[in-house]
Design goal:
This protein is an all-alpha fold. Helix content is about 85%, strand content about 0%.
């Protein structure tokens, strides 16, 4: 709680100076609005349901894309981490695809899926899969070889080896890639909504800007920042509990 209060000092100071500057006429109202007007615009958006709906649509696309990327990145990363030969074979293809900006895929995904959740989630998944994949490969490569020898001696099937040996040993580092991917998912989801997909908070900000409603635009922008902070904090705690549930080393 003390950390949150300390962290709130600078934003409160900025908003106080912003309000004072706006009321003194030092800041143009058509572009900066006032924090008090932003609060009123946010309250109106919440009461009429537009901001909760937009929040749900953006979070839905971000989390669906993140979930797809997490599953695919971990599974493929484990396979490549266990097989250096396979990693060398597909590595050049991965390195060729990884630098492609995810937003550049929006015309293709629009052609394949049309407007809506599937198009946005596909772009988010493409952007998020790379940090999960790369970190997972490195994490699996760093597993104590004797643990893998134990799995081989016990003749465990791949699902059992994944659940009892690999994930408990590599999860601490895999979580780092997952946390990076969570942040990327929200960024890409909003970007897709701003550029092409008429849904969510990104589209709402564009509509507010074009309608000359700076207070509503700022309200959605600031809410988006709080949403990203809350999502990161929530998933960080969830990942910590997940890691604690597995525990270090080999699970029973």
């Amino acid at each position: 709680m003390k950390r949150i209060l300390r962290g709130a000092v600078l934003p409160v100071l900025v908003f106080a100076l912003w309000e004072a500057g706006s009321r003194a006429g030092l800041l143009p109202m058509d572009t900066f609005s006032r924090p008090s007007d932003i609060v009123l615009a946010f309250a109106a958006g919440v009461s009429d349901g537009s901001i909760p709906l937009a929040t749900w649509l953006t979070a839905q696309a971000a989390l669906v894309g993140f979930a797809i990327a997490a599953v695919a990145g971990i599974l493929v990363g484990v396979i490549l981490g266990l097989s250096p030969f396979l990693e060398r074979t597909v590595g050049p293809s991965i390195e060729a695809l990884r630098p492609v900006p995810a937003i550049a895929l929006t015309p293709l995904t629009l052609l394949l899926f049309g407007f809506g959740l599937r198009m946005e989630a596909a772009v988010v998944a493409f952007a998020c899969v790379w940090p999960v994949l790369i970190v997972t490969v490195a994490a699996v490569r760093g597993i104590e070889p004797r643990l893998l020898e134990v799995a081989q001696a016990l003749e465990l099937a791949f699902p059992a080896r994944l659940r009892k040996i690999i994930l408990p040993a590599a999860l601490g580092r895999i979580v780092v890639g997952l946390r990076v991917a969570v942040s990327i998912s929200l960024i890409v989801a909003v970007t897709v909504e701003i550029v092409m997909n008429p849904r969510g908070l990104g589209y709402g900000m564009i509509i507010a800007q074009q309608s000359l409603q700076p207070a509503l635009m700022y309200a959605q922008l600031l809410w988006l920042g709080l949403l990203g902070w809350g999502l990161n904090a929530l998933l960080t705690r969830a990942f910590g509990q997940w890691h604690g549930a597995f525990g270090p080393g080999v699970s029973p």
